[in-house]
Amino acid sequence: MRREWIIRECKLAVSRQCELAGVSRSWVYAPHKSSLVGEEELALLALIDAEYTRRPFYGSRRMIPYLKTQGHIVNRKRVQRMMRILGLAGMAPGPNTSQPHPKHKVYPYLLRGVAVVRPNQVWSTDITYIGLEKGFVYLVAIIDWYSRRVLEWRLSNTMEADFCVICLEDALRTYRKPEIFNSDQGAQFTSQAFTNVLHREGVTISMDGRGRAFDNIFVERLWRSLKYEDIYLKGYSGMADLLLGLTEYFVFYNDERPHQALNNRTPVMVYRTGEGGGAKIVNKFRCNPEFTSIAHNEAEEERFQSLLNTVQ
């Protein structure tokens, strides 16, 4: 949206326009991704996204036979490329599953075994992909762990850090700042633009451990609910429809949708009262040996999925 504000023929320099609009010049000059993706590619992206939402422990190797059952013969290199576009990596431990920027600092995970007992004790964020009729965009959201309330969200057609920083700044202006902020090790969240905001506010930074499927499970559960309760049902055609649909869904999610983990109360009710919420990442989901053998057969897959479904 902000990209359309930039007028290259304007007397005001593009760099100054970008500064005023709060976007980077590379975002303006970069080609629109949605216009570069063909119908077959979009179909494959949609299939991978849907299957990953069902089975987040699937990596590129497991996606290949799944796509074959759907009538698509693709090699691993292509699947890996598409999963990078989607920002996806299998949860099961393995090499190169989540690569931060090589020059960015990675912070330790601080929440294992910590009881979250009040609102604004821990906030968390993540990015997911949303397919449109003729393209795709990325969604970032920030949630409060205690109440599961979605505090802020933003859309972008690129994976640059700008829209994540804007989302964070808006959340900090609207709500009381958290004690700990957790994210994955992606380049958007390890960037100085993002971490400097947290340092400025005196917020402690925590980042998911490698191969730890449940370190940021509350946002993963949000994505699963969003996609099955809204995105896959409606099949949005464009950005305008998606913006309207997401606005309506997040109001429903926060204010109306009962959550089993909150004793069927809503996130807004729990956030405002400070009662009935809570969270804790327990140590039993560590990578070895519980996790290294995960998804080796159908029984293990079902067990893993049942664990995911219990986290509302």
Fold and architecture overview:
- There is one protein chain.
- It is built from 13 helices and seven strands.
- The chain is an alpha/beta fold.
- Among the domains are: 1-30, no CATH class; 115-280, Nucleotidyltransferase, domain 5.
- A five-stranded mixed sheet has the order 4-3-2-5-6, with helices on both faces.
- A hairpin with a 5-residue loop joins β3 and β4 (150-156).
- α3 crosses α5 (76-86) and α4 (60-69) packs across α5.
- The longest helix is centred in the last third of the chain and has 18 residues, at 217-234.
Give a short summary of the structure.
The chain is of the alpha/beta class and 312 residues long.
Q: How would a crystallographer describe the biggest sheet?
A: 5 strands, mixed
Assign the CATH topology of the domain at 115-280: Nucleotidyltransferase, domain 5
Spans with pLDDT under 50 lasting ≥5 residues?
A: 31-36, 91-99, 285-301
CATH superfamily of the domain at 115-280: Ribonuclease H-like superfamily/Ribonuclease H
Order of helices and strands: HHHHHEEEEHEHHEHHHEHH
> Class of the domain at 115-280 in CATH?
Alpha Beta
Q: What's the CATH architecture name of the domain at 115-280?
A: 2-Layer Sandwich
Q: How many angstroms does the end-to-end distance come to?
A: 32 Å
This entry's quaternary arrangement is single chain
